[in-house]
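Q: I'm writing up a methods section and want to include an example of the input and output format. Could you take the sequence below and give the corresponding predicted structure tokens, formatted cleanly so I can copy it straight into the document?
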Amino acid sequence: MARVVLENVEKTYPGGLEAVKKFSLDIADREFLVLVGPSGCGKSTTLRCVAGLEDVTHGTIRIGERIVNDLPPKDRDIAMVFQNYALYPHMTVFENMAFGLKFRNVARRDVREKVQRAARILGIEGLLDRKPRTLSGGQRQRVAVGRAIVRDPKCFLFDEPLSNLDAKLRIEMRTEIKRLHADLKSTTIYVTHDQEEAMTLGDRIVVMKEGAIQQCGTPLEVYHRPANRFVAGFVGMPPMNFFEGTISEEGNALWFNEGTGRIAVPPWAYGTMHSKIGLRVVMGVRPQAIRDARIDTRGEDALSILQMRVDVVEFLGDKMDVYVSTAAHPNVIAHIDAHRRLLPNEIRPMYFDPDRLLFFEASPPGMTLAVAPAAVEDSRPIL
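A: Here is the clean output for your methods example:
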């Protein structure tokens, strides 16, 4: 396996479209790194540049000790798994998995051993004589992964490999890929638009937007300490709620005024937010940090409540997504226990956990101003 280093990589297409902008990243040997972002953010283009399927406009790419900018894909010692599987329909599973080895003049006996070993790892030993058309989507994806495994490459590249599978199968294959990485100890770069996949698979995740890196860090770091509003809103389900308002001071306390009500600024944010008195800022709060406050709201808790109208209730088993609003901020989501009884159009006090608030600049790009010091140590589930 090998370390992969990208230094100021840029990709500009004819006509001036900048798909990748000054992308610099050091991927450690045996690391599982995930590139995540919305469609068109440049993540797949970046992966294709590493693979050699796209030429870089500027910058350098190293795989191991070699600069590979001018090397064709076959000489980069990488293996790529595509979204559409890219299997040959006229070949058996065995022939598909062995295809790349034949071009490398691997001995026939070694080819059989490598294919059978990969099939055993993936649980597809009984499928080796079948054609792709007779396989399910999950089985085809395992064959595509097996074709990559047999090559023993320095780096595995995955380009949205699970996007064609149904929800249940995606979870199963996600677990399989994570287990494979642990067994093979392979350097892996994985592209997805699904932030849940990114959070569960990656040792580190890179959030991209418009060809540029917005943040790189561990899943917990990116979730609890987002660099800006884009990252905060993209990572996490349901997505983070944002309230634009102003900071005011009354006595020794700071308040966030959202337009129809106010929330106490928690003491841990005083140092930063005191300089924002009279200015517009954005408060962020995840749906999991909002709850119905009709019960147990006394003392300091009463300083963290907004009166909100219930608009829509969506039941999700033991949880429910409740869409609430104020006159200034519609479509706020609270993800709460389903045993609470909330009715559309009623006004309810909603409690905002002060230790899970975030504050951002109001002007683009909305850089993060303040996050609770203990946020990363929070033991609550990521999603």
